[in-house]
Amino acid sequence: MTDQLKRAISAAKTAQANDGQAEATRIASSSAGDQTFDMSESSYKTSHTAIRKARRFAMQGLYEWLVTDRRFDVDGKLGWKANAPHDIAARTRATNAMHTVHIGYYHEMMRDIPEQIEALDALISQHLDREVDKLDTVEHAILLIGAYELQNRVEIPYKVVLDEAMKLNNHFGATDAHKLINAVLDKMAGELRALEVQADTNANLRTSQKAAAKQSEANPADNIETAAETESTIVDEPTASNKPRISANKANVKRSSASKASANISDFKASKKNANDTKD
């Protein structure tokens, strides 16, 4: 083996070791909460499907946080807290294939939603018929993501937020939980996205008005054809009102004329017979 080849192999091993150390440093930094992630992170998928997967992982991470550190915080058991959101995110990235997930958005939700949970819970509770802590934990996590997106991600249409919440519930939630989630987020959208909801309502109204106008434009021609068909039916088919009637008086006159004519013929035959008898 030549010295040049040995140096190349040594350089490759050194580069591999450096890459591994850099990755370990990055994960440790993430666990410590020092690293920030941008929505436009270019090294990972940023498609609609990747964002949907980020919501799914965030929902599971928030669920884990709500039943551990958040519950201990509410109950005053601060000494039990040992499952911070950034630790959950680090474990999730270490144990799952995240190459098809929008990592930036996932970390954003795992960072910002726990930080804003008091304000988000206040928004949610305005449209609930019960206390927030009475919610099922899965429903609570889904509502937190929906409330966060309605308030902070105005570039995502409110209908998409509601639809994605329904998909999360179909995947993780109870059968009838979609009724509560849809009702709460729909009311919240009317509050947080009033202009967007009103514009959508106006667009739907214009669409329905155009459809009604087209229908009314088509109706006159249909009415004319229907009227023509009805008129032809009336003319062609005789009814009781246009059938010829025979008057009883006219019938009597005809019968009298016939009887008179028969009598005249009988008289003519009788007179002719008498004349022949006279000649004989």
Characterization of this structure:
It is built from ten helices and no strands. The protein is mainly alpha-helical. Helix 2 (48-74) crosses helix 6, helix 5 crosses helix 6 (137-152) and helix 6 (137-152) packs parallel to helix 8. Residues 22-43 and 246-255 have low confidence and may be disordered.
Write the layout of secondary structure elements.
Elements: H1 3-31, H2 48-74, H3 85-95, H4 103-115, H5 117-125, H6 137-152, H7 158-172, H8 177-192, H9 194-236, H10 248-279
Offer a few descriptive terms.
elongated; mainly alpha; 10 helices; 280 residues
Major sheet size, sense and barrel closure: none
- Contiguous low-pLDDT stretches (5 residues minimum) are 22-43, 246-255
Count of DSSP strands:
0
Rg over CA atoms, rounded to whole Å, is 46 Å
Report the structural category: mainly alpha
Oligomeric state of the chains present here: single chain
Q: Tell me what portion of residues adopts beta-strand conformation.
A: under 5%
Task: Give the overall shape, derived from the CA principal axes.
Answer: elongated
Mean pLDDT: 78
